[in-house]
Design goal:
This protein has about 300 residues and is an alpha+beta fold. About 45% of the residues lie in helices and about 25% in strands. Strand 8 and strand 9 form a beta hairpin. The longest helix is centred in the last third of the chain and has 24 residues. The structure holds (3R)-3-hydroxy-3-methyl-5-(phosphonooxy)pentanoic acid. The site of (3R)-3-hydroxy-3-methyl-5-(phosphonooxy)pentanoic acid has 15 residues, from helix 4 and helix 5.
Length: about 300
Amino acid sequence: MSSSFGPGKVILLGEHGVVYGHPALAAPLTVGVTATARPADGCRLVVPQGLPPVQAAQLEEAFGRAALQVGAPSVEVSLKSALPVSMGLGSSAAVAVALSRALLTASDQPASVAAVCKLAFGMEQVFHGKPSGVDHTTSARGELLRFRRAGTRVQVRAVKAKVPFGLVVVLLGQRPPTKATVAALRERQARWPTRYERLFAAMGKGVDEGVAAIESGDLEALGDVMNVNQGLLGALGLSSARIDGVVGLLRGAGAWGAKLTGAGGDGGALLALGPKPEALRRAMKRQGLQSFVTRIGT
Ligand code: PMV
């Protein structure tokens, strides 16, 4: 029996812009998905109970494809997740990375970052259509990184935080699937490409300003970039009154910056950065909202 892990992730800056060739900044979470492989008479996946039929079918298809690519080793793989699904915390990418590691190991192939990324990307394409790849790359590498995809070319750079910091992750609840939100934005972008490109480009510039702020330890500047990023996500039609309300509460409670993270829509997860992460978490608790603090750069 062997266990393989795939961490979840948060996108600090640049979600959606990253689909259009601009950079994003993302970090792994400590929580994620564990895949356990046991010897069996064929190659199969135990689909987690309670998964809606559409997601269960996608998971089986993704697993089947990846299994074929590594020669369908004789193992039965089961999954255990500590990540909420459909929240923007990269649960599908964590599943893809954990399964890829499990399948590569079971077929006696090196589970290198490159091999895991290749296999996991195929699975993410089943889940999301045409993902940028930022989610599974962050999960596979397990480090804070600047990610950019230009066509088929991927640029990844590890970002080193001068000062480690805590980010508060607030859980609002389930939101529409990433695939649907990305497709709806694609329609607006295709109708009005010049206007939308201006917003994506501004977001991409913010990512590099955010990277510089992290590398120089200027967390207030990072918070400010997060606020601007949230404004741009709102302009792209990806926020909601509920998200904006909680963003306002977080800023009122002392956050330097607060924004949605991931695909957006009404729900999902928010990120907040401030001098006292625990105080922000308590402020959320008083509002009846679940949150946790994740450490970046440690
Ligand atoms: O599925 P989520 O919420 O982690 O969002 C993925 C990030 C997007 O930029 C919205 C999509 C992508 O492919 O990068």
